[in-house]
Amino acid sequence: MSTDSPPASSSPAPIQLSRQKARYGERVIVGFLIFCAVVSVLTTVGIVVALVGPTIEFFREVPITDFFSADEWAPFFADASFGVFPIVVGTLNVTFWAILIGLPLGLGAAIFLSEYASPGTRKVLKPTLEVLEGIPTVAYGFFALTFVTPLIRDNWPGFLGDPPGIFSAGAAGIVLGVMIVPTVASISEDAMSAVPRSLREGAYALGSTKRTVALRVVVPAALSGIVASFVLGVSRAIGETIVVLIAAGNTPNLTFNPLESIQTMTAFIATTATGDIGVGTLEFKTVFAVGALLFVITLAMNALSIWLVRRFREEYE
Amino acid sequence: MPDPDRQDRETRSRMRTSARQAITAAGADTESLALGRRSKSEAWKSVAFLALMLFCVLVALALLVTLIIDAFIDGSSRLNADLLTQFPSGVPENAGLQSAIFGSLWVIGMMIITVVPLAVGAAIYLEEYADRSKWYNRIVELNIQNLAAVPSIVFGILGLGLIVRGPLDLGFVAYAGSLTLALLVLPTVILASREAIRSVPSSLSDGSMALGATKWQTIWHHVLPNAIPGIATGTILAVSRAIGETAPLLLVGATVFVTFNPEGPFSEGYTTLPVQIFNWVSRPQDEFRTLAAAGIIVLLFILLLMNSFAIWIRNRYARQT
């Protein structure tokens, strides 16, 4: 009971519209909801905390200049060398081929879905894309190893020299490209569908063809969403582990040659951190140092994405 | 800090101009043409362009269909009951998926129990309570966006450093895997739940509030029940991703040679479907490749079921509103 309002029996005149008693249960609930929202922040904090400690310890043992300048990655040899570039270049190598395949295919598919497909076709294709987005990476890895690589090796034109080996950066890259097509297509298509009809009709009224409308009106208007889908697709390719682990071999190799076997940052982490590696050993710390580098790269990609989206954002009322 | 309002106005005027430019450019392209029939070269370009776009869709779909057919051709010979009932073995003829299936059930089941309340709670807070103009709420939103793009293997490192070892120190148990995957899918489920909550018409909650219900009563009795189909769809899609997730589990102890089913979430030693398949793919013998293909078919079948269920829910409830 609040003390400032008179008891109802003595003066019935003022009607109490506000609540009669404090509902403490509701405050507890709001507290729980805030806790839930904070968990996601704690996850980021947790990632940073988990990475920073062992990474600092790693750099106490291995000079940071070695990490960024030596050109050989052989952390567990007797004569150890900690140059991270071979595995960074390995990641870039695979990602480059994935971009070359995945982004044009994804964008093309999105334009078709948004501008050309009939409503019925779209109704079938859009959920299909969503289902395909969920195919597990181990299936893509199997596909790369048992289908794409043999296909390339069997049909290799002789004038290009020796065919690639069983493990190659190119085969892994191609399959990663296929893997990101549904992601790129589905997000780009969302952005293009959100472009108001009036813009398209304005262009049609001026006598534009469908192609001109798609390329000169819809794509520029949806650019921020398209760029976001590209960055997300590239992030997925950089962070993908299993496909490269299965199809690209696992040998650190400072090369951009798609025919050679390489190791990526993610593959290194996954190979080294499986099994019982002891806390505090150099192996353990190396995994965290490489993980920290990977995390920083993805953060930078994300910041780039947010900046690009702001830069190209088009809003129509 | 620049004034956000002004920035916003600037962006708006910029985008209006650019939209106008886009239309003008589109018009300029065809300016020389009469209103009647278009020139032959233009017609050709249009057809070529359509063919190119269609090609993109077909190539992407064909490759993905090939992926599935390839797995079927390679794995059909081992697609039988033995595959589901046998335990992993060094002899390919005796090897099966039983411990992996039970491991996946434990890991994913506990993950769902962990992630759904957290994600729905966060979504309710962000949609119904959070004041968007406050910096800390913007940080939460930015953070969720950021987490969604972090590679899964980094979550594995988080799990190894803080959940398996370190402060939580659970050891290599199934629940360590559940918790790691829960944090991994958390942003996706939050985003889906927010969208579902946002799409509940405000007239419903306004009516409830007008009748004197408190904020929480309104959310509990009116907003949430109407958002459940959307939340369920988003959750099932996120869970189906988690079932196929391999990389982070390699780091948090889904060891590959487990010949027993986990007794509970906290008993040591477990493996999951994708991890077992990954192990088989990595072996050089052809017999294990066949097993891997058969395992992939099982995995794809489970995913297809879950996805169809999610899409069915969405279509069923989409029609009612």
Folded structure, characterized:
Chain A has 317 residues and is mainly alpha-helical. Chain A has twelve helices and two strands; from the N terminus they run ααββαααααααααα. Chain A has helices spanning 24-61, 64-69, 85-116, 119-133, 137-154, 169-193, 197-205, 210-221, 223-239, 242-247, 265-273, 282-312; strands at 73-74, 81-82. A two-stranded antiparallel sheet of chain A has the order 1-2. The two termini of chain A are 49 Å apart. Chain B has 321 residues and is an all-alpha fold. In chain B, α8 (202-210) runs antiparallel to α9. The longest helix of chain B is centred in the N-terminal third of the chain and has 36 residues, at 40-75. Mean pLDDT of chain B is 84; it is low at 27-35. The chains are: A mainly alpha (317), B mainly alpha (321). The interface between A and B is large, with 107 and 102 residues.
Under the CATH scheme, the architecture of chain A is Orthogonal Bundle
Radius of gyration of chain B: 26 Å
CATH superfamily of chain A: MetI-like
Global shape of chain B? globular
How many distinct folded domains of chain B?
A: 1
Helix and strand content put the structural class of chain B at mainly alpha
Main sheet attributes: strand count, strand direction, barrel closure of chain A: 2 strands, antiparallel
Strand arrangement within the widest β-sheet of chain A reads 1-2
Percent range of helical residues of chain B: over 70%
